[in-house]
């Protein structure tokens, strides 16, 4: 590995600090960049600066994928079944339990048992002032009906929205950095995107206790189109054109050599942007961020451990085990933020909780990538198995390292 990749942890730390400082010393610039977004029903779904960075992260990964292997990856039933079980049968419920224990019991004293939050009334409701709805009460604020609820419950709602939204974009970066099977990762991204359209509203409504949660169809489809489909199509067309005109040798030995650093550079730029957008919030509410970050962090580590452990138990190869564990551990925070804003309001505790999910996602998942790479010897590898047993995406020779 080159010096740049070897000291990635240092660059991540410096970028986080730089982002917070930038948000504090130049809040106007940070707010202007943060305001550059595509909104759906008044909720910011696509941050244009982040979308540009994500495209630069995803494009090199998509170019390297042999898309014929993606279809063959679908025949590997063990990783497919395990990923669906973790994402939809385990993760939403562990998120609810962990957040409820920490926010509703352990941290209730520091959050404030009497602290309240003002959120939007339920969609389509026409409740009278003074009426009770769940744990909240309808109040009139500046002529607008709002629902006054315990603050910790608002934070809990945001955590739940993160728990029911498995990642369908950034996980491609985590799997790529961990040297996993990109074909399996991309296939599971497609499956999760489809399953979310059905289970997101059902599980969310059940765990939030508000009946059937409205499914943010536009937000889901828009985010998947921008964050996944766009770099996917660009990568497929680029690969096809280069292989047809320049040949595979030039593609692997020349083109990929210059493309490799782009993903890491774009990832670091994303960190600077994310933390600059919320620099003032972090500095003004450090303890609030901490109380929410602790259960979210524990949930991420738990789900990763479950995915990694079950992958080992079921005999998965490392190339499938790493992305299987990471798909469950990471969250689709763009959809979670959009839903929290749509349901509860931009200034609600639920929206803040989803933002905390954004802030811890990148550094935490990078740490798990390092853990995966350090434990590769725990699993069998695809190059030691027959191709029919475990389909493998062609590796990028510029990234090969010895075990």
Summarize the structure.
Strands 3-6-5-4 form a four-stranded antiparallel β-sheet. Strands 1-2 form a two-stranded antiparallel sheet.
The helix tally amounts to: 17
The helicity comes to 55-70%
Order of neighbouring strands in the sheet with most strands: 3-6-5-4
The backbone outline, from C-alpha atoms, is globular
Average pLDDT metric: 78
Q: Can you write the helix and strand succession as a string? A: HHHEEHHHHEEEEHHHHHHHHHH
Secondary-structure-derived class: alpha+beta
C-alpha-based Rg, rounded = 21 Å
Note the main sheet: 4 strands, antiparallel
The low-pLDDT segments are 385-403
Strand content: 5-15%
- Quantity of strands, as a count: 6
State the end-to-end CA separation: 13 Å
